[in-house]
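User: Hi! I'm working on a homework problem where we have to compare a predicted structure to a textbook description. Could you give me the structure for the chain below?
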Amino acid sequence: MAAAALLAHGPSLHAEGATLIRDALLIDGTGRAPQPHSDILIRDGRIASVTQTGSAAAPAGALVVDATGKAVIPGIINIRGLAGLVRSPELPQDHFSQGSILRHLASYVSYGVTTTATLAPQPAQLRAAQSAAKTARVVTPVRTICAAAPAAFRGGALESAFETVRTPKAARRAVDNLVKAGAEFIEFQDTVTVGPDDRNRRLAVATVERAKRRRVPAAIVTHRAGLARAAVRAGARVVSASIHDLELGTELISEFVALGVIYAPALFAESTGFAYEDRPAWIDDRYLRRSLPPGISGQLRGPVQVTQALDPDRALKSHRFDVARHNLRKLAEAGVTIALASGSGFPLSFEGYADYREAVLMTEAGLSPLEVIKAFSGGSAAALGIDRESGAILPGRAADVVILNANPLDNIHHLRDMHAVFVAGTLMPL
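Assistant: Happy to help. Predicted C-alpha cells:
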C-alpha cells in the first residue's frame, strides 16, 4: 500500500489489526548496528516478528507499509515531562484540565514521543484523558517530593505538583501515599539552598530508601554531584537532571558505572534559563510553532527575551550548561546508561519540540546519533522500569514505532522528518 494511503487510514486503524512494515532500515533501540532491509510485523499491538525483507509473507488482511528508503526507530520515551500546565492566554482551558492534558499528549505523539512521564497534580483528569483518546502513554510519579516547592512556582498552578516534606519520617510517609495514589516511580527534587545542615540530603536518602523498600524505581533531580552520589548510594536508579556544580571526576563516574546509574541530563531544560536572550534561530522554527499554544510565541520574543537579557546570572547559567555538556560526554564515554528527561511541559520547554532539541544538544555534546536513539528508547525504558515492555523493536515488545523519511544516523535532524507513528500498533494522526 502506498505511503499516502497508509496515512489516510490513520484514524481508523486499530491495535488488533496486523501491520507489516516492509523493507525498512531498522534502528532497534538496543544500540546495535542498524539492520537494513527489515520487515517488522505488528500484531495485536505488539511486535510479532522482525525478519529480513521477503522472508515472510504478509498475513491476510494486513496493512502493508512500504518503508523502502525509510528508517524505523522505537517510539521516544521521556522520563520527565509535564502534561497540562502550559496553556494559551487565548484559550479557556484551565491548568491540568482534561482538555489541556489531551492536547499536550497529542502534541507529544506528533513529535514521535509515545511514552512520557508526567506529574499529575489532578490524577483524575490525567486518567480521564488517557481513557478518552488514543494518545501517548503516561507513566507518573503523581507528584515530586521535595523540601520546598521552587520559589518560582510558589503560589501558582505548578506548586500543586510538589509534595513538600520537612522530616525523613514525612518523606517516607509521602512515598507510601504516592504509591497508594498510583505512582509508578518516585521522584525527589533538590530545591533548597545548601546550608550547614543539608536537609535535602537526609530527605532524599529517606525518600529513596523508602521507594526501594516499596519496590518502586526512584529518581533524584539535582544539579549537585554530592547529593546525586548520596541518593544513588541509597538506591536511586536515575539522576534526571544535569550535574553542573563541578566537572565529574573518575572516582564518581566509576561509582556511577558500578551502581548501574541511569543519567538523563535534561540539557534543553538546562539551557532555557538563558537561551532565549540571544533569540536563537530555532525560536522561529515552524517545527517549534506546532508545539506552541496560541499567544506563547510572542512571549518568547518579548518578555522572556528581555528578562533573560537583564538576568545578572546569565553568564553563570551559560557556564553551568557547558559543565553539564562535558559531564554528559564523560559519563557516556565511561559506559553509563543515558536516558531522556527533556523537562518538556515545564515553563519555556514545550511538549515534543523540547525532546527533539534534547537530541540535537546531546549530539552537540559528543554523543553519536545511534547513542541518542538508544538513550531515547532503551535507556529511558530502563529508567522507568518498563524495559521488558517498551524501548526496543524486538518480538514481544509493545509496538511503539516511528517511521522516518530519512536516516537519523546520517543527521540527527532527520528525527523531525516523520512519516508515521504507531502507539501499541495503532497508527496515530500527525
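For your comparison, note the following. The first strand starts at residue 19 and ends at 26. Confidence is low (pLDDT under 50) at residues 1-15. Good luck with the assignment!
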